[in-house]
Amino acid sequence: MDKLKRVLSGRDAEEPSGLSEVIDATSLGWGTRVKGFIACFAIGCLCSLLGSCLLWVPKKGLTLFAVFYTLGNIASIGSTLFLMGPMKQLKRMFEPTRLIATIVMLLCLVLTLCSAFWWRKEGLALLFCILQFFALAWYSISFIPFARDAVKKCVSVCLS
Questions:
Q1: Distance CA 14, CA 107 (A)
Q2: Tens digit of each residue's pLDDT (9 = 90 or more) over 112-132
């Protein structure tokens, strides 16, 4: 359990220094981090679920779905900030192995909101929600070793 705490908090290979001791003294405790993660992730799931329920509202349903689904995904991604901390999360998001997945995911989040509010194209918002789902899934599995290779192989076997 201590190894998991060290890896998630970014202290797996670091030697304790004066700066890290100051950061540890002013940062959240492990229990608070887990509670923050669970709360933020639950809010994200609730927003996504609420968006799915609002899909059936006449006239504005698709726009409400796109907005709540996107907010849910943002909250779910934000929940990991509690576990790793914001700087470590940003550094890991933009590592070369997941740079493209991060950019596509963030682009889909922005384009979904643009198509819902600015362009007012509900069909486009739905398309971006679908792309958002796949981009977030691809981004998420980039944190699991060899998961992307396994998915690529499964897809190639299914398509051939």
A1: 33
A2: 999 999 998 888 999 999 999
